[in-house]
UniProtKB/TrEMBL annotation:
The keyword Hydrolase applies. One of its GO terms (biological process) is base-excision repair. Belongs to the DNA repair enzymes AP/ExoA family. Pfam families: Exo_endo_phos (PF03372). It is an enzyme of class 3 (hydrolase). This is exodeoxyribonuclease III. The record marks 140 as: Transition state stabilizer. The keyword Cell inner membrane does not apply.
Length: 305
């Protein structure tokens, strides 16, 4: 299983911050780390490579601002190939894992709408037509009213990124699994008010959805952005203690059966039921598994009382 994360670090030029960042990623076993806003220059990267146990692949701007990078762990450093990068806003690598070639693209979108619109078009011109894409980073755009405190604006940059997702058959896997939830990946106090939005995403090809084990956001002291964490496993068979076996005896439990029926009816209200039934059924199986595990654990505890 590969643990892939994305984070806007709000600058990593300070060597002490970078050392702490590397230690944190290593301790949490983050194996592919996509970073935005590194503020690095090429000469700085050469010096910083000694602090990361693996390899660093990056794109810098000419002003020592912006900057994107992939930090790849020792485990996978010989499994990656750098393809291209530009403007300190785009870096594209390929990861060979379990006989698959995953196209990993890390982006940092501009704040200004017109520039962001042009950038998203450029992203579309530079990523492959592939069934195995993971596009991640800071997009500086919310995708729905649930993703923002305040007004969600569907400007031309929003329309451009939405079209890009459709054109490349990729989707927001977190939103698909949590269609009605709210979580914010960026927060800041502006004029004594807390402003929050979800603008950091991991988009994946729909063909990769069955390999996703989980995806979640994790707050950090390193930045006003959160980590987005994706765990995926492209192996054909599950190994070790991770295998889950459904207890058929639960089908004789009327309360459990009613809970699962209610869950299915609720999930049918999700737009993916009509728009992307294969993704919908994968998400449903995931939620049934989680609901079953919680129910079985609670039932076991109740019996002991």
């Amino acid at each position: 299983m590969v643990q892939c994360v994305s984070i806007n670090a709000n600058g990593l030029r300070d060597v002490n911050k970078f050392i702490k960042f590397c230690s944190f990623c290593s301790e949490n076993r983050y194996e592919v780390v996509a970073v935005q806003e590194t503020f690095w220059s090429p000469d700085l990267i050469e010096d910083y490579k000694k602090h990361w146990n693996g390899i660093i692949i990056s794109s810098c701007s000419g002003t020592d601002r912006q900057g994107v990078a992939f930090l790849v762990s020792e485990k996978y450093k010989n499994c990656v190939t750098e393809i291209k990068g530009f403007d300190g806003r785009f870096i594209y690598i390929q990861l060979e894992v379990d006989n698959k070639t995953i196209d990993l693209v890390n982006v940092y979108a501009p704040n200004i709408v017109n520039e962001r619109d042009i950038f998203f078009q450029k992203v579309g011109d530079n990523i492959p037509k592939s069934d195995e894409i993971i596009l991640l980073g800071d997009f500086n755009t919310s995708l729905s009213p649930l993703d923002r405190v305040g007004k969600h604006i569907e400007d031309k940059a929003f329309k451009r990124i939405s079209k890009l997702l459709d054109d490349f058959n990729i989707y927001d896997v977190w939103r698909a699994r949590f269609p009605n939830s709210r979580v914010f990946s960026w927060r800041r106090i502006i004029e004594n008010k807390l402003v929050q939005s979800r603008i950091d995403f991991i988009f994946i090809s729909k063909m990769l959805s069955t390999f996703v084990k989980n995806i979640f956001y994790k707050h950090t002291a390193f930045s006003d952005h959160s980590f987005v964490i994706l765990n995926f496993d492209c192996s054909q068979t599950e190994r070790g203690p991770g295998v889950w076996i459904f207890n058929n005896m639960l089908l004789n439990d009327e309360h459990y059966v009613n809970k699962i029926n209610d869950l299915i009816l609720k999930e049918k209200e999700c737009r993916l039921f009509d728009e992307a039934p294969l993704i919908w059924i994968d998400n449903l199986k995931y939620k049934i598994k989680k609901e079953t595990q919680v129910y079985a654990k609670d039932k076991k505890i109740y019996r002991k009382i």
